[in-house]
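Morning run. Coffee first, then this:
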Amino acid sequence: MRHSNGRVRVLYSFPNRLGADRICYTAWQQVNGLAAAGADLLVFPGSLSRPVPPGVKVRPTLARGSLRLPYRLLGPLRTVALHDWIVSRQIEQLAGQIDIIHTWPLGALETLKTAARLGIPTVLERPNAHTGFAMEVVKKECERLGVVLPPDHEHAYNADKLHREEEEYRLADRLLCPCEFVVKTFLDNGYAMEKLSRHFYGFDEKAYHPSCEPRKEKRGLTMLFVGVCAVRKGVHFALEAWLQSPACKDGTFLIAGEFLPDYQKKLAPLLAHPSVQVLGHRNDVPELMRQSDILVLPSIEEGFGLVITEAMGSGCVPLASEACTELCAHMETGLMHRVGDVAALTQHITMLHEDRALLERLRTAGLKSIPEITWTAAGVRLLEVYRETIAAYSSGAVPETAEAPQEVHVKHG
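And here it is:
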């Protein structure tokens, strides 16, 4: 890890299985994008699920060869804390060989403390909104619906988890925010704008692409939801809007994802409608997107919503809440509504049901934006953020950390 032609030397710490599902996939794609952008990468994952590009150095913390430490053995929080401790000790030996450290939530506290002591700038990924906000807003919506979250659910209130994350927020030099909604939740909780850096997540254009076949003329609209069917994703809003729109009379609403049992039970009357098909977890999401006209994501809380850019790249028009990425621009590449605004979402579904020319215009505009929303483009932007953070750190322009966590404010719209 030496300076070479001004290349940024990055220590990338990820406490889970790099290349697995959900955030593990996001982190893996970030590493790929950064490598393509020209960063020198030393990656410390918990373990590795997929290969990384040549030249990327990988040192798993919780695996040796084919042996991996099961997260259930110590529990998830203790396991990622062990990863954090191991990385913090490795940093001691790498002082002078690292320009910046990229960390992820819950596996960063000791790493951030060590980096601060050694004078190494740090960034902390924010794959979701402020955790206190996310816990509170999901709790309120669950109470409104009468849905009980399991105690170990990722969005169930957990004081220890929240305290640890808020300490990480305080210690990191920059918080990496993939959309403006995430930025807003931190500003609402008293964080300085200078501490928040904007980047974005991309999509894999090799997997998500439009069909080579001409689109068939059809009467009914096909709407698709992809993801974990949980309260925070707003599947109930999507179902209400779909069934209030005339599109449900001759169209199809496909739901690809696994339901929280109590949530599915609550939505059973809506799910029973003949136009609704619950597909469960699927491995053919790119093909489902190619076959669908619109993708719906009415989340009440998000970090980005990867399915939005994946849908755009597949020729599927997104209908999303304002909690999702603004890469989906209203009336340009998709349609956006305020969180919980079922009436607006109903209107948007009906608009595209009745105006297929508008549907095609939005679809075409989304496909034209592909070069700007890939993981390669995201890697270029992230490397820019690194350079900006290093420059600010060197000039002393990094803002002071908050003395204490601020009261969580829940705001819709």
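Residues 9-202+376-395 form a domain with the Rossmann fold fold (CATH 3.40.50.2000). Good start to the day.
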